[in-house]
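Section handout 9: paired folding examples.
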Amino acid sequence: MPDRLSLEEYLAIPYVLDVAAVEGDDGQWICRVAYDELPGCISEASTPLEALDRLEALKTLTIVSRYEQGLPVPTPRLPLRS
């Protein structure tokens, strides 16, 4: 993989999605979704679709911001080979 991908290439990376049902502060169950490889990319909402929509917007914002600031954009690690 080259040292620096284009912004479009970073935005097209299929990050691993972590999904969990968690109990909110009010005792109601909510959906938490995250891209663990991207710092701060966590979203919670009452429905999975709403949480995912928020997460995708946050992912785009995070990648664009890091790219424009010249900061490294984390990418998923390659799978282990046997």
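Moving on to protein 2 of 2.
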Amino acid sequence: MKERIYLLLGGTGPIGIHLTKALEKTPNTSVFVTSRKRHESTDKVTYLRGNAKDLDFLRKTIFDLKEKCGIIDVVVDFMVWSNEDFGKVIKLLLPETNKYVYLSSSRTFADTKGNLIKEDSPKWLDVATDKKFLRTDGYAIPKAQQEKMLQSSGFDNFLIIRPYITYAENRLPLGSLEKEIWLYRVLHGRTLVFSEDVAKHYTSLMYGKDVADSMCNLIINDSVPRDTVNVTFSESLKWGEVLNIYSNVLKRHYPKVKIKMIPNSIKAGGGDYQTIYDRMVDRRFDSSKLAHYVDETAFTHMKEGLEKCLEANIKHFNYNTSLQDWRLQALLDRITHEYASYNEFPKFKTFLKYMVYRTTPKLVIKIYRIIKSKIK
């Protein structure tokens, strides 16, 4: 039986790690994973060190794999592309693989006004009237645009997969806040801040391993046609209920944990498009299409999974400095009348930035920005 070759571009994130393990278990398989960091390869998994967004590196990777293995059976693309680069990428990849798997996002969907979200539900790209939002290069708009680019490419060897918000041992979202913000505050004795305008809306969080296992079933199943599938969970909870799950776990370890609810997320730095056009609308999904290929009854329930992953983080908090936002921490501390300790800052410049946002009015912050730009 011919060995199947899988190439995962940027496959070391919350989903990619689990997908690699799932593919590794399938027979007659070799998995190649690009990563900017060094990883230890195994008998069936080879890590290729480099940045897949570098098109020269990507071309060389494709050429080398073809020379070594022949046709690449499946390419799974975890990267976030500009539209310009994506046009070049699909011209490069679609002719060189039997199946190109594009990770889009269920954030592309517009507000369904209480109806369950299906694969053909309206998208923000088609219905939004906010011109600034439609010009954004954040996530929801480019992903929808790139889906259209694929569908008009003239090729039919692609599969579009739309996960929604995933959580895992290394990721625990709370509204638009990642654990590097909200859990960091709790573990450093400060108040967790959350907003009522997000708390009242429904969300659906899916465990990264369940997303990866679902993707694996879709990828290895040759009977899956050119298609678009929402890899989402039919279970949903309000963000306020998610907060309660986190709170109950935290109180087992920190009985005096402090939580402050505020009416408006914008006051806590939540005026971004992710908050406005996603966290502040209900997200409940019809997963019947996915159920044709995957047994949803095996998925981890949200409460069970979130509790387990938070427990693991409390014991071994993996602090990712790249996701820390001291401006946001300062804004939250202004709301709670708290201060970060000086020894939390990696350098004096970071401390100074925090103090400017923590203590000064908007006019002084504006002057600080102007001075900073002149210094550059």
